[in-house]
Amino acid sequence: MGQITLQDVQKSFGPVHIIKGADLEIADGSFVVFVGPSGCGKTTLLRLIAGLEDVSGGKILIDGKNVVDTPPAKRGLSMVFQSYALYPHMSVRGNIGFGLKMAGLPRTRPTARSRRPPRR
Ligand SMILES: Nc1ncnc2c1ncn2[C@@H]1O[C@H](COP(=O)(O)OP(=O)(O)OP(=O)(O)O)[C@@H](O)[C@H]1O
Ligand SMILES: [Mg+2]
Predict the structure, then answer these.
(1) Which residues pair with 109 in a beta bridge?
(2) Which site in 5, 20, 73, 81 is 20 to 30 Å from 34, CA atoms measured?
(3) What pTM was estimated for this model as a whole?
(4) How far is CA 90 from CA 66, 96, 97, 105, 108, in A?
């Protein structure tokens, strides 16, 4: 996965300041949970780390490299959305295999891997 470091990460939507200076060290391989009341910014913080939102200030480092200008696909992260985002026209196998296909794995491997049930 890699080490993730947040340094004074800020996010505003217009005049509303949502993330007010988040500092965090997430060690490689560790399991971290964000807990807080609805609307406190948990999803926003995850979206900032994944690159789905631009930071308003601060740095996000992955393995020591500041990725705030790196597009989501180049950050090497995955995110499962709070509201499930499935491709309705694809089968279960198609949905699971899609990420592997996009990652450039050869056609035979996604098929074999996506036949196995997903691990919890
Ligand atoms: N794109 C957006 N534009 C404007 N405001 C936004 C946007 N996305 C989130 N917000 C606001 O930012 C705040 C934090 O939202 P966020 O979804 O991060 O909260 P959350 O902690 O994940 O809440 P929940 O527990 O309900 O999932 C909320 O006030 C929300 O209305
Ligand atoms: Mg949320």
Answers:
(1) none
(2) 73
(3) 0.79
(4) 36, 9, 10, 19, 18
Walk me through the domains of the chain, giving residue ranges and CATH numbers: 4-64 (3.40.50.300), 86-120 (no CATH)
- What end-to-end distance do the CA atoms of the chain give, in Å? 17
Percent over 90 (pLDDT), the chain = 60
**Which of 10, 18, 38, 53 has most ligand 1 atoms within 8 Å of CB, for mutation?**
18
Reported as a single tens digit per residue, the pLDDT across 7-41 is 999 999 999 999 999 999 999 999 999 999 999 99
d(CA 14, CA 54): 13
